[in-house]
Design brief:
It is a single chain. By secondary structure, this protein is α/β, with parallel strands linked by helices. The chain is built from 15 helices and 17 strands.
Amino acid sequence: MLSQIYIKNFKAFEKETIPIEKHNIIIGENDAGKSTILQALDIFFNQEKIDKVFVRDISLPVEIGILFNNKFYKKIYSGASYKLSSQSENISDLDYFRYIYIPVSVYDPKNILNQLSISKALSTTPSELIDKLKEIVQKSVDDVIKSIDSELLIINDEKTDIVGKETFKYDAAIKYSITSDGIPVEARGSGFQKNLMYALLVGNSYDNVILGIDEIENSFSINNCNNMIKELQSKIGQTLISTHSVTVLEVSNDSNTIPLYTDKYDNISKLLDALDSTDSKIYLLVEGKFDLPWYKKSLSLLGVLSNYILLPAGGESNAESLKKALEAHGKKCIIIKDGDTNDECSIQKDCIELYVPLSDLNRILNVNLTKVPNNKKDFFDQTVIEEERNEDSVKRILASHVDEFLKQDNPLITEVAQFLNIDDKQ
């Protein structure tokens, strides 16, 4: 079981050590660092590179570490591309574990099924068999190197030695093809995928799985949280669940609570009061997580940020179901959708990124457009650069710069004010 997470120079944290227990509920307002903790673990266990936009100070490396069985393991990401540059020598001690991360309202049952199946394979494969496979892999490279005529590799009258060291990882060799009635699982409807995700997570026991769920009330609906948390804690080796909702805390089954504070809420009492103020606060539901900084800045410019709790719904259809779930618990809700939905509660432009001023668009994305495109397809066709950035990274980059360019005279501010029935000139 992990007992500490160490994060340096990554997103919300300049340098932080977070103590954790077997089961954890992370609470805090937006931008407090809830997702940062879960994403840092995903990078540590599953990724070789960090998106530069998440680095606080690009003159410094990013460090992510964990304390496991009183031993500290660390990985360092540095260089221009922030690739993995060094790691603890004994990092292979962690090969037995799998970290599974579920972002807000992202349903990927194929990945979950694969990850859980790999976890099961790791827990049931005899260690001597893995050692034997490593021995075979090492012998293979040794045999190839022995076949090399060293006389052909003389430099400055000296022979050159070549050494091969196996880096075999059993889990990386395990692959699965997942279908449902002959149809790829990822091609099934969102309702099916959501139910399959739930069934997978609570259907078996995995003592070697560390599970991170971001804003569980949005990913699985607050109505399911009670039973789900209890089931997860009985089936999964270690859990970290983030939430905005005190209701989740009430059904957290005595989990370790990790409150994350900002300058606004500097103690647990103030934080809980803020999260639970259902009578005075309105939930503003937007389609995606990259929309949040735009609307947060808009509400700030309108002077009403403290009146709202912003939540990403994870898509147009999820927004309506999330609204119903929250209203069933006495929450006041407003939905703002992207313009391509042609809904009465949608902004005028196809997507929120179309509100970026042209000069800022060119500067931030290093492009040279003569005008901001007037539709979503043209916008991403002209800003996405293959092998460098995709649609999501364009959204993420612009969202990270919102404070620089979103001003009072931007038409988005007027539209948001109209949705909320407030005066945008106040």
